[in-house]
UniProtKB/TrEMBL annotation:
SUPFAM superfamilies: Transmembrane di-heme cytochromes
Sequence ranges assigned to domain Cytochrome b561 bacterial/Ni-hydrogenase in this UniProt record: 8-181
Family assignment from sequence similarity: Belongs to the cytochrome b561 family.
Lineage: Bacteria, Pseudomonadati, Pseudomonadota, Gammaproteobacteria, Cellvibrionales
A Pfam family of this chain: Ni_hydr_CYTB
Protein's name in the database: Cytochrome b
Source species of the chain: Cellvibrio zantedeschiae
Length: 182
């Protein structure tokens, strides 16, 4: 077994902030759409922008620090799957908020952090008509990308959790405990 250093508190904190934030926003987003609970839409977008800032910090931290060394040596196929999933998680968590911001701004709905508008709504002249889209192409592109990347990312999260549990239960190594700060 390879001895590796503990993960830094920053690495652990960024990992769990993004993980919990992302899963929470996915649940909230699915609820908003399925229940047509549009009053939660601005909250979803605001929390998404805040989480995006944390995701950017995590991506920067990961690129500067590099990937943690594996605790043990593993099969080459498993290593390739692990790299694919980790890069997919990092890229996907970046693309989801970006696509959400593209959708919101291009559709004329704007986005921001609660009362602070980064991109304001584009209201129609008659308030009962709602908003005017800047670009229906980019609004549709953003919406579809936001939806499908989220579904793909949820699948990668399942693979990530399965891998962590395999390390813990089958290999009985300290990979999972290391990410829990132990």
């Amino acid at each position: 077994m390879v001895e590796t250093a503990k993960l830094s508190r920053i690495t652990i904190a960024l990992h769990w902030l993004v993980a919990i934030g992302f899963v929470s926003l996915c649940v909230m987003g699915i609820y908003i759409v399925k229940a047509e609970a549009w009053t939660w839409y601005w909250t979803h977008k605001s929390l998404g922008v805040i989480l995006f800032m944390i995701i950017v910090a995590r991506a920067w931290w990961r690129l500067v620090q590099g990937w943690p060394a594996p605790i043990n040596t593993y099969d080459k196929v498993e290593q390739k799957i692990s790299k694919f999933v980790h890069w997919g998680l990092l890229a996907g968590t970046m693309f989801i908020p970006i696509s959400g911001m593209i959708h919101s701004s291009a559709s004329g709905h704007g986005f921001g952090i609660f009362a602070w508008h980064i991109v304001a709504d584009n209201p129609a002249l008659d308030p009962k008509d709602g908003v005017i889209a800047y670009s229906s192409f980019w609004a549709s592109f953003g919406q579809l990308t936001h939806k499908w990347v989220a579904y793909c990312l949820l699948c990668m999260i399942v693979l990530h959790v399965a891998g962590a549990l395999k390390h813990h239960v089958v290999y009985k190594d300290k990979t999972l405990l290391r990410m829990l700060g132990k």
